[in-house]
Design the sequence.
């Protein structure tokens, strides 16, 4: 498999974590979003959304959207599982993952921040305020959910789908200097995850394209 990703892309890191948890090998293909490489060459021709990550399977098929890729990996390589047994538990894990992947990340990703600054003419301080507002709002919800579900990790004592999304989001929040003191459970789980090789060894700081 080949994974097209950008080292600072939280969506890309989610998939790197998932692949590492599954023990799966892949070729790392860098797409530098800040240099607009997503709009050029064969990547742009294949990935019509111009977004990372994209996972190219051994037979040449392309998969996109990080959560779809993670669930594909879980269906095709079921051990160790990213989702628990039982329909209710699986729905709860997906809900927490979507609190991050659908309610925090999309309105704070690079193309949105660029639009706010470049097209709508907002000052950087205003863009940063936007970012921090939605991080705080979203993590407030995540913190409340984790109070009921967390063990060592988001759901019990085994890392899974929700953890794959949580850790990259916290990395981005820290990059933007978001206050995080109000989210002690979130930060405890984040620290526990980062102690695992699957998270630490896929960190943006150790990626081949890290600047």
Sequence:
């Amino acid at each position: 498999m080949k994974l097209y990703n950008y080292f600072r892309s939280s969506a890309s890191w989610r998939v790197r974590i998932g692949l590492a948890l599954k023990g799966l090998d892949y070729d790392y293909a860098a797409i530098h979003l800040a240099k607009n490489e997503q709009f050029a060459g064969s990547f742009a021709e294949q990935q019509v959304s111009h977004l990372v990550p994209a996972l190219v399977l051994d037979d040449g098929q392309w998969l996109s959207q990080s959560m779809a890729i993670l669930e594909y990996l879980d269906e095709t390589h079921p051990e160790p599982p990213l989702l628990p047994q039982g329909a209710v538990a699986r729905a709860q894990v997906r809900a927490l993952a979507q609190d991050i992947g659908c309610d925090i990340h999309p309105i704070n990703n690079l193309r949105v921040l660029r639009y706010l600054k470049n097209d709508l003419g907002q000052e950087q301080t205003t863009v940063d305020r936007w970012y921090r507002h939605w991080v705080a709002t979203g993590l407030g919800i995540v913190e409340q959910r984790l109070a009921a579900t967390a063990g060592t990790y988001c759901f019990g004592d085994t890392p899974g789908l929700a953890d794959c999304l949580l850790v990259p989001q916290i990395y981005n929040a820290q990059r933007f200097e978001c206050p995080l003191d109000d989210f002690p459970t979130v930060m405890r789980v984040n620290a526990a995850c980062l102690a695992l090789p699957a998270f630490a060894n896929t960190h943006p700081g150790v990626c081949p394209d890290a600047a």
Summary: The mean pLDDT is 95. Residues 2-80 form a domain with the Glutaredoxin fold (CATH 3.40.30.10). Residues 35 and 95 are 33 Å apart (CA to CA).
